[in-house]
Write a structure and sequence with these properties.
Length: 112
């Protein structure tokens, strides 16, 4: 696994200015499973251009562990679980069934 790729993907997250503190995301690179998810992040993903309020609204609707900072300008990542959810958002790993309107994790079609 390339240290350069990992650094580039972390830089993409930081430079997007979506999160207030990327420390918890950085901590995820210590685990192979979550490191792979960080490596899969596409720097051209439209989610990087999405307003934090819209991401937080999506997360709230589906009870995902993502919240806004107090001033509502960025996503707050206070813990590991929030960091993992945020990385999944960046990988566009959430899928909504048109038929049932249920939210699934697209990696294993696990109902959330």
């Amino acid at each position: 696994i390339s240290k350069w790729t990992t650094t580039a993907n972390l830089f993409t997250i930081i430079s997007s200015k979506l999160v207030d503190d990327s420390t918890k995301i950085y901590d995820l690179i210590k685990n192979k499973r979550t490191l792979k998810k960080i490596l899969n992040i596409d720097e051209n993903n439209p989610i990087f251009k999405t307003e934090p309020k819209k991401l937080a609204s999506f997360a709230k609707k589906y009870k995902l562990d993502i919240e806004l900072t107090e001033d509502k300008s960025k996503i707050s990542i206070p813990n590991k679980k929030s960091a993992e959810v945020f990385v999944k958002l960046l990988n566009d790993d959430y899928l909504i069934s048109e038929l049932t309107k249920s939210l699934y994790d697209s990696r294993g079609k696990k109902k959330i």
